[in-house]
């Protein structure tokens, strides 16, 4: 199965993965032309009632997940999974602090423009996606390189 990339529309309510609706989103294959990144825009943090999806919202949940037009997603890299510190149920105060920094950093990175690619789902029904930033960097790898996330599967909780 070919890897399919979809450009997440720059405004709410436009196409995403299985619900592409015409010209509102651009579809490319791994062997096709590169997708144009989303226009830069501020991405909000998810309100509590939409952290698991729904409502057609596009927002950031934490340092390794979010929601795009109501569908939840989980961040990966081009080479594997990503695990950011927990913000909802951290094991210690340091994990919460780094988790908040990772969340804000992902929000900042994606606000500069991005594309998402992927399609399989995790055990919680979230799309596993690679986020490619407007400058070509892999958002998950940036978080790992900056010490705000670790590769998944991980070897434990390095923040506590």
In short:
The protein has helices at residues 93-111, 139-145; strands at 4-6, 27-29, 59-62, 65-68, 71-76, 81-83, 114-121, 127-133, 150-152. By secondary structure, it is an alpha+beta fold. The termini are far apart.
Protein architecture, described:
This protein is α+β, with helices and mostly antiparallel strands. The chain has a single domain (4-152), classed as OB fold (Dihydrolipoamide Acetyltransferase, E2P) (Beta Barrel), CATH 2.40.50. The protein has two helices and nine strands. The strands form two sheets. A seven-stranded mixed β-sheet has the order 2-1-7-8-5-4-3, with helices on both faces.
List the helices and strands and how they pair.
Layout: E1 4-6, E2 27-29, E3 59-62, E4 65-68, E5 71-76, E6 81-83, H1 93-111, E7 114-121, E8 127-133, H2 139-145, E9 150-152
Parallel strand pairs: 5-8
Antiparallel strand pairs: 1-2, 1-7, 3-4, 4-5, 6-9, 7-8
The value of Rg in angstroms is 15 Å
Q: What would CATH call the class?
A: Mainly Beta
Question: What's the order of the H and E elements?
Answer: EEEEEEHEEHE
**What is the subunit organization of this protein?**
single chain
The geometry reads as globular
In DSSP terms (H or I, runs of 4 or more residues), the helix count works out at 2
Overall pLDDT metric: 79
What topology, given as strand order, has the largest sheet? 2-1-7-8-5-4-3
The unreliable regions are: 1-34
**CATH fold category name:** OB fold (Dihydrolipoamide Acetyltransferase, E2P)
Class by helix and strand content?
A: alpha+beta
> How widely separated are the two ends?
40 Å
CATH architecture classification name: Beta Barrel
């Amino acid at each position: 199965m070919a890897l399919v990339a979809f450009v997440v529309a720059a405004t709410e309510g436009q196409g995403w993965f299985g619900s592409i609706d015409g010209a509102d989103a651009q579809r490319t294959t791994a062997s096709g032309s590169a997708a144009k990144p989303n226009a830069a825009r501020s991405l909000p943090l998810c309100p509590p009632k939409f952290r698991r999806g729904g409502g057609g919202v596009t927002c950031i949940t934490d340092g390794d997940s979010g929601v795009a037009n109501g569908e939840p997603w989980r961040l990966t890299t081009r080479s594997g999974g990503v695990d950011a510190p927990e913000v909802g149920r951290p094991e210690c105060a340091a994990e919460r602090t780094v988790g908040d920094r990772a969340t804000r950093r992902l929000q900042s990175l994606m606000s500069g423009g991005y594309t998402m690619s992927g399609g399989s789902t995790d055990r919680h029904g979230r799309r596993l996606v690679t986020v490619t930033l407007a400058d070509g960097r892999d958002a998950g790898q940036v978080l790992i390189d900056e010490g705000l996330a670790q590769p998944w599967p991980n070897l434990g909780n390095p923040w506590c």
